[in-house]
Amino acid sequence: MYEALKQFISSRGVLEAPALDAICSRFDLVAVHRNEILLSYDQIANYYYFVNKGAVRVFTITDDGQEISRYFAFEDTFVTALPSFIDQKPAEEYLQAIEKSELLRISRDDFYNLVASEPVFARIYTEILELGFIMAQKRIYGFQGYDALSKVKWTLKNQPKLLVRVSNKMAASFLGISPSTLSRLKAKL
User: Fold this and answer.
1) Is residue 136 in a domain?
2) In this protein, which residues make up the domain named Cyclic nucleotide-binding (predicted)?
């Protein structure tokens, strides 16, 4: 149950087995169904999830009812509504399992206790923040001026699982193009 998490943590620093077991003991196993909502728009994010198996997306809904996907997390990745997790205000976005998933969940209190007490976990948190920032910047600034084909090529290079495991509708909302355009472009590649 904890093997992927142990491997993830160990790849970021050396830890003795008891310390690694102590970190993992703070996580609870959560099995969720496809399309299950883990966090709603008006809720506060009190958990961070590590994806053991499956996939989770972070999305919002516009005033006219259109879903806009912001992030997809696959195996060996952490995911939450980070702004809400940090500032404890309503998420203003949703977390949804888009596949039947096995997640390891840690409470906010336990998460920050580990950040304060385990240097390896503090490095993981810093890495999560840095990679999230970098990916957001690349996506925001990289997509400015990109045509649809360039956006799809960027996604194939930077997030290859996305176009294979996510529906065209969800992937298109992430890319800011129509599902039919995405289908046409995927057929060309």
Assistant:
1) no
2) 15-115
Query: 127 near 11, Cβ under 8 Å?
Result: no
Q: What pLDDT band is residue 142 in, cutting at 50, 70 and 90? A: low
Q: Is residue 125 part of a domain?
A: no
Structural domain boundaries, residue 50? 3-118
d(CA 187, CA 10): 40
CATH of the domain at 62: 2.60.120.10
Structure tokens at 134: 């970098």
Q: Would you tell me how many other CB atoms lie within 10 Å of the CB of residue 55?
A: 23
- Can you give the pTM of this predicted structure? 0.89
Could you read off the pLDDT of 103-129 as tens digits, one per residue? 999 999 999 999 999 888 888 899 888
Residue 183 to residue 139: CA distance in whole angstroms: 20
Is residue 69 in a domain? yes
Tell whether 145 is covered by a domain.
no
CA-based R_g, the chain, Å:
17
Query: Which residues fall within 8 angstroms of residue 55, CB to CB, at 6 or more apart?
Result: 72, 73, 74, 97, 98, 99, 101, 161, 165, 166
Q: What single-letter amino acid sits at 30?
A: V
- Contact, 96 vs 35, CB < 8 A? yes
